[in-house]
Description:
By secondary structure, the protein is mainly α. The protein has one domain. Helix content is 72%, strand content 0%. It contains twelve helices and no strands. It has helices at 2-12, 26-36, 39-51, 58-68, 71-84, 87-93, 97-110, 119-122, 127-140, 144-153, 156-159, 164-178. Helix 1 (2-12) packs across helix 2 (26-36). It is elongated. The protein starts with a helix and ends with a helix. 38% of the residues are buried.
Amino acid sequence: MALDFDIGRILQQYSGANPHQPPPQVEQDFDQIAQNSPREHLADGLSEAFRSDQTPPFGSMLGQLFGQGDTQQRTGMLNQLLGAIGPSVIGSLLGSGALGGLLNHANRTAGQQQVQLTPEEVEQLSPEQVQELATRAEQDNPGIIDQMSRFYAQNPTLVKTLGGAALAIALGKMAQRNR
């Protein structure tokens, strides 16, 4: 019971809080909540942060997360993105630079199956290329935000690199859900 009380107390301070002035302990609060809350609650909070007009665009945030992730996280994230976009988007990217070359190779290798990049292929991409891919994925499939939120709910330590505003928005959404 004490744990539930502490979560409620922590979340209460984010209910209606200004994300541009998050409390100084927002990262520590996020850690505590992420460790002690159901992943679906955390995913809902992350979806809110990714969609908020008070945070950078979704593509920018995913590019940033890609830049901060390890090889396994980057590979998982990119394959989630690729799995959510339609063949038309992949087709439109096939001719564009390094990303297009990798997708073309992976597309030929996969045949009719879903395109999957290897860790070695993923490491050839820049955060800017991932940002472009995430932006296109969101345009093609707005539900990608929820998918990526579920993915990052499994990697909450990485989410802290998005900064205090995004964390405060996520915690604020979780506070609303907790009421």
